[in-house]
Amino acid sequence: MKNTGILLVLFTFTIFTNAQNQNNVEDHQVQLGLPMPAILYEKALGRNTTATMEFVTGFGLRGCSGCDTDFGIYPVLRGQLRYYYNMDRRLDKGKNISGNSGNYIAILLAYQDKNPLIGNLMLSESVLGVGPVYGLQRTYRRGFFYRLEGGVGYSQTQDDGGFALLLAARVGWAFGKRR
User: Which N-terminal stretch is annotated as signal sequence (predicted)?
Assistant: First the structure.
């Protein structure tokens, strides 16, 4: 009985260890983005699935002839649940998947506050957006990455709601141990 228990523990440990190594996505990574400053943390949840939290700054500018020009830099918080659907195909073709280089579909939740961090352009309302997005992300050897994503979702302010385009483009550097 004692040997059976030891074998069961070893078998379970082996399966757990192999399951951890079979992920196509990185266990975790941090990205610093541009052109507007952004920081993103991405954590593996499964073989091809990750969760992300991103703090981004958004920019607004308003001006006209005969009036003052106002600007604002706003905080934006974004969360995503991503499924990278082409990782196995990329591996079969000998392509890079390090830094989660692949195409994904995701559910996006984004919140932009109406109060600027810097500047004097006050938005009339904060905005909450949610919806599906399609994206692609490529990370290169020294950590440089780019990401493009887009979709159609629903946005809500205090007084109004409706369909909205959910678009994002980012370049920057990814940090963390990569494949």
Answer: 1-21
Residues forming beta bridges with residue 163, ordered by sequence position: 154
Residues 6+ apart with CB under 8 A from 123: 60, 72, 74, 112, 114, 115, 116
How many CA atoms, within 13 angstroms, populate the side-chain half-sphere of residue 118? Answer: 6
d(CA 25, CA 28): 8
Burial class from Cβ neighbours inside 10 Å (0-12, 13-18, 19+) for residue 120 reads: exposed
| Whole-number Å distance between alpha carbons of 136 and 126 | 28
Amino acid at 40: L
Predicted model pTM: 0.80
